[in-house]
Amino acid sequence: PRRKKKKAKDKAQILEQIVSSKKQEEEKKRGLDKRTPAQVAYEKMQEKRQMERILKKASKTHKQRVEDFNRHLDTLTEHYDIPKVSWTK
User: Fold this and answer.
1) In whole angstroms, how far apart are CA 21 and each of 7, 13, 29?
2) Where is the composition biased (Basic and acidic residues) (predicted)?
């Protein structure tokens, strides 16, 4: 037997169901939530900061990071260089 092709309407309905089910889950969580408003705010800020950190890290390519790091190393004094050690002398 052949399967029916899903139409755009079906996809839209499925998306709506997913969104509405997520909203219902959130409402249930709020009812069962034993956290204080301060704890909720704290977790929201933590999540926001984490997203900012991820976006900041994702903004540069590896090549750009390496170039920046090399520039930083060039600015350092050579006091921190590892001295050459020769066992023959």
Assistant:
1) 21, 12, 12
2) 22-35
CA distance 20 to 13: 10
What's the rounded Cα separation, in Å, for the pair 34 and 55? 31
64, 71 in Cβ contact below 8 A? no
* Exposure string over 19-53, b if 16+ CB within 10 A, otherwise e: eeeeeeeeeeeeeeeeeeeeeeeeeeeeeeeeeee
Residue with token string 């959130």: 26
User: Which residue is it, tokens 């309407």?
Assistant: 9
The C-alpha atoms of residue 54 and residue 46 are separated, in whole angstroms, by: 12
Q: Is the entire prediction scored with pTM above 0.70?
A: no
